[in-house]
Amino acid sequence: MIDEKERKAFREEVKQTRIPEPKDEEVLTLLKKAIRHEGTLSAVAKKIGYSKATTSLIRSGKYFGSYRIFYAKLKKVYDFFENGVVMCPGIKGEIHLQVCRQYRVAIREGKILKGAAFAQAKDMCPFCPAGAKT
Q1: What 3-state DSSP class applies to 96?
Q2: pLDDT at 99 over 80
Q3: Under CATH, what is the fold of the domain 4-78?
Q4: Domains of the chain: which residue ranges?
């Protein structure tokens, strides 16, 4: 969760950079990817520092405020969707998003996958900040 000081500083930064208002499709597309990735709208809202209610209103298209700051935060947290890779501390390098997701699902289900990369990453995955994003 983002603390209040950090929230205010980020809000001021976005206001001063004069970022144009994003298109609704951009916001909704990234939000849908983030929800699919995290599993719940609540998890996305918590990670970006917004309430579940506001995030739900944005998703349903019923939010009448500006999307600028919301989109900037969403993009800051979920920018890895752009290039399709995340940094894996288990293998100490980049790993494709789908492979990271496979590892996380396998660990959650108690399965063992073949390969040296999985052997290196499996102990780190449950605690990995990148793995929590996939």
Answers
A1: strand
A2: yes
A3: 434 Repressor (Amino-terminal Domain) (1.10.260)
A4: 4-78, 83-133
Q: Is the pLDDT of residue 93 over 50?
A: yes
Q: CB within 8 A of 34, min separation 6: which ones?
A: 44, 74, 77, 78, 81
Average pLDDT over residues 12-32: 76
Contacts of 89 (CB under 8 A, 6+ apart): 124, 128, 130
Tell me if residue 110 falls in helix, strand or coil: coil
Burial grade of 100 (CB within 10 A; 0-12, 13-18, 19 or more): buried
Return the number of other C-beta atoms located less than 10 Å from residue 71's C-beta.
22
SS3 15: helix
